[in-house]
User: Fold these one by one.
Assistant:
Number 1:
Amino acid sequence: MEYEVVIGMETHVEQNTISKMFCQCSADFFGAEPNTHVCPTCLAMPGALPVINRRAVENAMMIGLALNCKIARHTFWERKSYWYPDLPKGYQITQYQYPIAYDGYIDVDVRDSSSGNWTEQSYRKRIHVRRAHLEEDTGKLTHIGGSSFVDFNRAGVPLIEIVTEPDIHTADEAYAFLSALRDIVRYLGIGSGDMEKGAMRGEPNMSLRPVGTEPYGTKVEIKNLNSLRAVRESIAYEVKRQTEVLNSNGKVHQVTMGWDDVRGVTVMQRSKEEAHDYRYFPEPDLPPLDVSDAWYESVHVRVPELALSRQDRFTQTYGLSAYDAVVLTRDRAVAEFFETAMGGVPARAKAAANWITGELFRLMGSAGIDALKIAPSQLAELIEMIESKVININTAKTVFEEMFATGQSAKAIVDAKGLAQISDTSALDKAVQDALDANPAQLKGYLSGQEKLFQFFVGQVMKATKGKGNPQIVQGLLKEAIEKRRPLS
């Protein structure tokens, strides 16, 4: 029998606030010694009371707006019973009945699963968002032999949990959703989205049903996936596993699975809890959360143009390919660098894109664009100098490398080193005549039909002018001089 997979995603996004969700402990704990970013509040000491982190609330509102959600103007906090030792209170402070953001959607581009590039099978998919709510993160458990160790540095760090509707039907769509969500988190500047460091964790809730039927199958959750690849591969494996169970007349059980990345298999962790198991009730130590019109508007104006919208604008307004648009908009700083480097001239869009995705990315390596010495306006100046034939493309690459290393402008480097292109026909004509005089054998070969030798002479002239000869003028003068030396028939 053929089955359809139905997937809803739960994604936890760790915020990069200075302090934790309900206390003043530093939230910048990565790499720190265990249990050094803790205080009486996040350790649940008697008498310690939580205080709401305003920035964390604003971040949740921003991501809600970016996901086209409605923002709740009145909500409150709830306690969720939590049976694991990585939260010392024995419960998690969260939002259940009234999330800060709800009823939204995200459009994603689903591309070829092997290359990530556009193909004829690529398409755009709308995935509806049920809710996005605030809560606190747990600590980290480490199991060694027969002992377990807990690090509470992460306990209490602000989290945003985003829950989709079951609109996802392939592993590639789940991959595209998480990739787009990570881009949004980074564009908003509210978190790193680094899945490998646990700053964003994806959890597919999936079931299989016979194609053409409406009822959902039994839901299985895959917990705490820490890479986009793991999301894609774990879903593909679980589809295969559940298909084999159903085709052998077996029964799929509602459980929580983990992903063994080494073996490439899912493993059962525990039976799946239901909402009533968590025994939600209002948090008595925190006041309700009310969002005024002024507060809402102050957050709304901070939401920037996002990656997908920029991709569409770059292709439609600037005529860039889908590939170039995607590469340039993955990082907000790169997208803004590109638009400034165009110098307000849409006709330069392709040139700016080529310089950024080629020479700039090559020299930059893994460093961030914010650390560059070169400004986008300086790249714009370089492109203008090429267009006005002050320098040729080969010289421009040399100039760009020095710009990248020193931060100097293209004009300053060209003037200091005398790199301006030679367009004086009298100076170039002498170099042309010298090249023909010095290479009679090659001239004879060209005149007898070996047309590839023309580039040999271009190279000789460029060598004589130290690469500064205007290529178009050089080629015109060469053709004219060679024809004058062609024997009369």
Note: Residues 3-295 form one domain.
Number 2:
Amino acid sequence: MMGVFSKLRTFKSGFWVASAMELLERWAWYGMFAVLALYLTGSTDEGALGLSHTEKGQIMGIVTAILYLLPIFTGVIADMIGFKLSLIIAYLILASGYYFMGEVEGYWPVFFVFLWVALGAAMFKPVASAIVTKTTDESNSTLGFGIFYMMVNIGGFIGPAFSSTLRTKYGWKIIFIQAAVVILINLVILLLFYRESDRMQRQKERFGAAVMRALKNIGAALMDKKLTVLLVIMVGFWTMFNQLFYTLPTFIEDWVDTARLKAQIAGFSTWIAEFMSGGGDRVNPEMMINIDAGAIVLFQIIVSAFVQRMRHVSAMIRGFLVSIIGIGLSFYFKDGLYVIVGIVIFAIGEMMTNPTFSSFIALISPKGKEALYMGTYFIPVFLGNFFTGFISGNLYEAWSDKLTLLQREMAKRSIDMPEVGTQFSKNEYYELAAQKLQMTQQEMTDMLWQTYHPNKIWYVIVGIGVFTLLALYVYDLLVIRPNERREEAAKAEL
């Protein structure tokens, strides 16, 4: 322990500035992103946008996918104009983007403003990591990146926690104002405390040439079939993982009796119940999702210590299996306690899999090409976000959207209902339908659950996970284990 404290003193000021900025940037991002699905599809009489789930899936899936491609270009820009100027531009884009996300309405205005936010996030992402790389060395880089990624999860936990309370008390727009204010705090920290001397010398080649060089490097890495097959397999993991933010919040909103869940939690802790509800009368979906980030903050070190004893691929396979069980439980039941248990189990699987994946890419990289191979990490993240949009959008709307299923049921019973739109909100539709069906809201929800089984979407989500698990097992059996045996034989000959 004393060794850790002595190493903490070896970090340069730029490292601590980058770590603080990472925490705040993740606070702003997850404070917005954790509730974005709810905001896009929520009832207009509560200040949300009332978009369809297909529109939500397209906005979140396409824009977030683009975000993970942009660092190819924004990283080159940062090298050319300097880290500090890049961050100033990033923060100005982010602050303005977050603010206007709360001001615009309609599919295309929201799409383009969110794309503007993604540009700002893509400007920030490679610079923060680069600062940590340049301000650490072989003696402290492992601890340094451990601290840095701990900041990611602390920010990822704080943001939704604040958003939950703020939106309950003040409405939706305050969420986006919060994100903009947090980013402006980051701008102040940057201007006051970051010194450009912490940055590497500026790149002198032209932008186009630098981008082509980056693309050629990625292409060269992808020529390694061992790496490419692994990246394709990991698309399945990210597609399954993203359901936590894209699909599960709206599933909870539609089907889980979170008022009852609050009463259950209050049975053993009133404070936790109030914290989870943001002071409202029910547990907010984003606070249930936020259990994932909270578990990572508390237990990542313990899980990592446990996983270190395993082979990399064995740890990933077991992590996949745990994640599949967790996500399956979260979507199969409409009892809030089971959903929470599922999220905790999923978090354990995520802690086993995600860091191990990064480490495994470095392990299979040829000596001297580690950075080249690590540059491919974003590819499965990009594709996973893109494919998630279809599951969270088109599929959810067809199989699991409460409004769609209720409209289907009312049509089947030949009961006339007004169209949901600017003059008639989703909540008003629910209230009128319950009256005409002579049911309470909960009885109506239970009837739809029993009739249409909206939890059947778990077959697809879990199916993707199982397919990924089997693919990784075959990959280990046919590629990794034979390679390990060859390496062991070569060492034995020496």
Note: The domain at 223-400+453-494 is CATH 1.20.1250.20 (Growth Hormone; Chain: A;).
Number 3:
Amino acid sequence: MPLEPDIDGIIKSQVMPGLWLAVPALLTADMVRVLAVLQAGLNSPQHQEFVKQLLERK
């Protein structure tokens, strides 16, 4: 099932928490915005918890 972007045009993965993609920025090659949104997702508490769970499985 395709994901719908939020009000800011950001798609947030349901499989990998913290994987956030700024669709409008991707389409206009605004890489500064693309990377800023991606970094914000990777810094989110949801992503930190996801990584913690992955490391606990080792």
Note: The chain has a mean pLDDT of 94.
Number 4:
Amino acid sequence: MVRGPLLLMHHLTPHMVSQRYGRVVNLSSGWGAFSDGVAGPGAYGVAKAALNALTVSAARTLPNSVKVNSMCPGWVRTRMGGANASRSPEEGAETAIWLATLDENGPTGGFFRDKRSIDW
């Protein structure tokens, strides 16, 4: 769950840097937050915590014109979330779309749900 985003960022961010513009949105989970005790089942929470760490590291390394953030979509009605989940796929995607379209003053290196910063 970390290798794919790492490789994708490795291949795409050099072009973002050369263009002086880029947005990376890592799809994480509250289960990967140390503030919640990395509460996810088994390796899932650990992998999401590693993805969050990658987000912080990349944001620190890349220029501010390339924004790197993580987001938690919440409990979404998908195969993983199941039919009883409280959010539609569209609701789960709102924060990702917001992060992908941030202006130059937007945050980088953050963790978000519902377009608001949440604790790591």
Note: The two ends are 18 Å apart (CA to CA).
